[in-house]
Amino acid sequence: MMLQKKKVLFIGAGSMAEAIAAGIVQQNKVPPNHITMTNKQDEQRRVQLMKDYHVISLPIEETEVQEADLIVLAMKPKDAASAIAALAPKLLPHQLLLSVIAGVTTTFLEGMLPLEQPVIRVMPNTSSTIGESITALTPGVAVSADHLQLARTLFESIGGVTVINEQQMDVFTGIAGSGPAYIYYVLEHMEETAKQEGIPPELAREIVAQTVLGASKMVLETKTSPRTLRKKVTSPNGTTAAGVDALKQHGAGMAFTEAILRAKNRSTAIAKELEMLHS
Ligand SMILES: NC(=O)C1=CN([C@@H]2O[C@H](COP(=O)(O)OP(=O)(O)OC[C@H]3O[C@@H](n4cnc5c(N)ncnc54)[C@H](O)[C@@H]3O)[C@@H](O)[C@H]2O)C=CC1
Ligand SMILES: O=C(O)[C@@H]1CCC=N1
């Protein structure tokens, strides 16, 4: 695929940039010497990235922005505006900007960039590291079918890809961007209880992780609803009924709904804060 010939520049070299780069390098989609990862400071981190993934890693001031075909913005929202302002005058019209920053809209990006600069808002998650992300893309107004295909191919190398509209992006962020953390939280608690009840630590971890993996795969591979699958596990007056009763009693269902909605609202609020600061 044409992606093999493209050069990818990451501006911001934190956990998300690393998760994406690790995925694309492992899947051989982009040769590591076509990937440059930059940050503001932290040379030690750059050395580590070069060692681990054989990518090029430079401080932002030493980076030849114009050599890149795809530019991934991967800094925290608070650093986004100054990074984009510094980047804007250096951009060439063909360069495709991919922003993974939570709460940064295509409209905000377009407002800070040269007219007609192609921009895609992207929300991956850290399971990119092992090729198991689910990533949403929202193309901006100047994005061609070829650009979108290129972005799709890039992110397909690290998991599933879906194209959604901007209104859906905040809730997608609350579900899939932040979602791994909710599941880790569940795993932490299951593991802790297993240990308290006398299961050795290593085994506790394997048991809970495989239980969650198996349940997820059941949904995807049997194409059956979680509700139907749950009912199949639940014998009348059995152990599962007792366990699920406890979940209901403690409001676990509502807790997940609330988690998603709060994360969604935070994404919307970040967008508003940025607009207020930079309009
Ligand atoms: N961590 C996650 O699970 C996910 C994160 N995201 C988004 O990815 C972005 C980055 O998140 P993390 O990787 O967790 O953050 P992080 O704090 O680990 O990394 C941010 C990086 O950006 C660099 N940076 C800041 N300003 C810069 C500038 N002007 N020029 C060059 N580099 C600059 C920092 O030096 C650092 O390397 C955030 O906007 C977040 O919303 C999106 C999806 C999932
Ligand atoms: O916590 C955050 O803001 C980022 C965005 C999605 C996951 N992590």
TrEMBL record:
Subcellular location: Cytoplasm
GO annotation, biological process: L-proline biosynthetic process
Recorded GO CC terms: cytoplasm
Top-level class of the enzyme under EC nomenclature: oxidoreductase
Molecular functions (GO terms): pyrroline-5-carboxylate reductase activity
E.C. number(s) listed in UniProt: 1.5.1.2
Catalysed reactions, semicolon-separated: L-proline + NAD(+) = (S)-1-pyrroline-5-carboxylate + NADH + 2 H(+); L-proline + NADP(+) = (S)-1-pyrroline-5-carboxylate + NADPH + 2 H(+)
Main location: cytoplasm
Keywords: Amino-acid biosynthesis, Cytoplasm, NADP, Oxidoreductase, Proline biosynthesis
Coiled coil: none
Classification via Pfam families: F420_oxidored, P5CR_dimer
Positions of NADP(+) binding: 11-16, 74-77
Residues of the Pyrroline-5-carboxylate reductase catalytic N-terminal domain: 7-103
Chain ranges of the Pyrroline-5-carboxylate reductase dimerisation domain: 166-268
InterPro entries recorded: 6-PGluconate_DH-like_C_sf, NAD(P)-bd_dom_sf, P5C_Rdtase_cat_N, P5CR-like_CS, P5CR_dimer, Pyrroline-COOH_reductase
Biological or metabolic pathway of the protein: Amino-acid biosynthesis; L-proline biosynthesis; L-proline from L-glutamate 5-semialdehyde: step 1/1
Family recorded in the similarity comment: Belongs to the pyrroline-5-carboxylate reductase family.
Function statement: Catalyzes the reduction of 1-pyrroline-5-carboxylate (PCA) to L-proline.
Name of the featured protein: Pyrroline-5-carboxylate reductase
Naturally occurring in which organism (per UniProt): Fictibacillus macauensis ZFHKF-1
